[in-house]
């Protein structure tokens, strides 16, 4: 999502609360980056973090829809992307998600039982980033950290949630590969986003998470006053189609060869831009040249 079109993102995303007063001078220069905001002039490459070079032979081991036994939405993550000197850490996107669903220690969650106990963040007995002892103490007193959950354990859940950390989410490829539909919110467009279709390959999510319950109620079924899920009103078959389409995209269009092709074309274009004779460095279709 573009901050220029949605300025309210400044209060919803931790990356928008960073203090840029001491950043390096804004000098135009070619930069290859793994993650960037929309409108950034840097050249985006294909990150290798958490990439899985899956093949057709791997699919049976990634989880089959009919074998997924838990209808809940699953997410675990560390507290990355959550600290800035200009805003309360509880307003950042990952902290806000946890407090919205699970609530603080000893307190009530904002949405009570509507989301059927979305899993608490995984801090591995702590948290990855902490700018000061005071903030560390606040986080420790507020967040109930869970134990590490391995991908094969998470495969039992039918729905996956993917949100940003400090930058783009490196787990997106793995989540798409599982065959479970991925609910995704991000401010960082990735190299493949022009080929991914919302509501076909994945399920888009609003930055304030206000549509999270409605999405889950549509696919799983609404929750009645007694706290029971009416699965007869859900759309499990549509969720399965989205999960399978996302998995097919990960297999057919997010392979090692696809990333190589993207990178080579990016480097060729970068070389063309650097050339003093761009026309000479530009590609010419041999067939068109013969006709002219």
UniProtKB/TrEMBL annotation:
Q: Which residues form a coiled coil?
A: none
Question: Where's the Glycosyl transferase CAP10 domain?
Answer: 16-274
Pfam families in alphabetical order: Glyco_transf_90
Database matches in InterPro entries: CAP10, O-Glucosyltr/Glycosyltrsf_90
Q: Name the domain of life this protein comes from.
A: Eukaryota
Query: What protein am I looking at?
Result: Glycosyl transferase CAP10 domain-containing protein
Q: Which organism is it from?
A: Kwoniella shandongensis
According to the entry, what is the taxonomic lineage of the organism? Eukaryota, Fungi, Dikarya, Basidiomycota, Agaricomycotina
């Amino acid at each position: 999502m573009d901050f220029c079109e949605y300025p309210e993102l400044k209060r919803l995303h931790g990356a928008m609360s960073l203090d840029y007063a001491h950043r390096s001078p804004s000098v135009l220069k070619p930069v290859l980056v793994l993650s960037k905001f929309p409108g950034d002039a840097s050249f985006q490459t294909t990150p290798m973090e958490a990439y899985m070079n899956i093949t057709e032979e791997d699919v049976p081991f990634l989880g089959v829809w009919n074998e997924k036994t838990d209808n809940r939405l699953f997410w675990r993550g560390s507290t990355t992307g959550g600290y800035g000197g200009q805003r309360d850490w509880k307003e950042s996107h990952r902290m806000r998600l946890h407090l919205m669903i699970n609530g603080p220690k000893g307190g009530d969650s904002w949405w009570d039982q509507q989301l059927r106990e979305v899993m608490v963040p995984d801090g591995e007995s702590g948290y990855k980033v902490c700018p000061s002892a005071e903030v560390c103490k606040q986080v420790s007193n507020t967040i109930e950290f869970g134990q590490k959950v391995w991908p094969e354990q998470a495969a039992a859940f039918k729905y996956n949630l993917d949100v940003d950390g400090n930058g783009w989410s490196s787990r997106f490829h793995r989540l798409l590969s599982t065959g479970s539909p991925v609910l995704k919110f991000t401010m960082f467009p990735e190299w493949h986003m022009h080929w991914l279709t919302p509501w076909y390959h994945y399920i888009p999510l609003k930055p304030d998470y206000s549509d999270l319950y409605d999405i889950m109620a549509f696919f799983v079924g609404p929750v009645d006053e007694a706290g029971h899920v009416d699965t007869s009103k859900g759309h499990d078959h549509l969720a399965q189609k989205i999960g399978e389409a996302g998995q097919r995209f990960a297999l057919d269009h997010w392979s090692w060869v696809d990333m190589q092709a993207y990178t080579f074309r990016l480097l060729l274009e970068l070389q063309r831009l650097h050339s003093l004779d761009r026309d000479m460095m530009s590609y010419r279709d041999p067939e068109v040249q013969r006709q002219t």
